[in-house]
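I am writing to request your help with a piece of structural work I have in hand. I am sending you one protein, given as its amino acid sequence and as whole-number tokens for its backbone shapes. Kindly check, if you would, that the fold set down in the tokens agrees with what the sequence suggests. You will find the record immediately after this paragraph:
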Amino acid sequence: MISKWQWLWAQLSRTLWVRASLYVVFSIGAALLAVLVERMLPGPLPIDIGADAVERILDILASSMLAVTTFSLSVMVAAYSAATSEVTPRATRLLMQDTTTQNVLGTFIGSFLYSLVGLIALSTQVYGESGRVIMFGMTMLVVALIVITMLRWIEHLSHFGRVGDTTSRVEEVAARALNDRINNPCLGARALQEDSIPADARPLYPEHSKYVQHLDVAALAECAEERDLELYVVVLPGGFVHPAAPLLWLRGEQDEDCDQELRDCFTLGELRSFDQDPRFGFSVLSEIASRALSPAVNDPGTAIDILGRGVRMLSAWTDYEQPGQADEVRYPRVWLMPLKLDDLFDDLFGPIARDGAARIDVQLRLHKAMQALTALAPVFAGPAQRLGREALALAEHAMVLELDKERVRKLAASA
């Protein structure tokens, strides 16, 4: 589990401008490195490169990299627009955090500035004879890097922003968040039951109406140890909070500084985050399936694919049957509500059962998914049977052919 500042740094490192800025700094440093290396040489190099030869290469790089960067930016924006309209706007953030795209753009922008700085240095005669040789060698390395980057970019564009690629990205982050929660039940705190908050506990309210993007349980525990508090957290990452609903309940002496210190452990934002919130990833997958089942798209294959992905992700839940065991508790002064399996079922399978109620292919695949989960572990039996009954009721209402209804009834009964 990462702290608040580690999480903020992770969010910052995923932004395009940070990675591009690093490439810019490295490129400018590389262009000026020849001056430093030339001064450290004991004597002139045996090879002589004319200024015109290096200048022509740098001029070609400067003009071409500017055009390539502009083209790549237009392709990136087009991919974001396609994902927004064809998949879901919530998944666009994952495309914006794509490291391959950021590295490609950073390489192109950095190469442009490298060429520009090199041309300025050549025109002002900063480089001597040895400096031009070093600059020529470094330029050859930059050209090789550009060629490799372009080949990688061409291959990446063949699937970047497509429905399957975006769905895989959402599945990856959702599965990672779910596995982190399985490995850290209740994020290291004690399991909180809904009726176990002491009667003498006092509430702590947030100052704004936003989503909980990150919860630093370690910082909460440290504050509780220092001030001899017991903290009962009633919101999970991904929950929407407002000043009329408490973030947590606490027992012990408190003051305004303590309250603000506790509030700072909750990172709030206008949008939900995938990192600590597996339910958000499941909800985004269900949004993709719902859009695919809409009459405008009419793509039941995508919904069926997401049902399979849901079975694959939830299969890891077999290790999470008893959250909050004694050997898992690292912060004994903090209580946190555990993640509920029924909520994950409702987030992922509920919308698909509703929007695909009239389609026999989706209904059959949904009930087979419930059968597969039930066969994997007994912990899935209750949620799967409940959702199967709800899906059957929706199908009975939406389907037209009695033959299709009978097929769904038989499959639901066999579950």
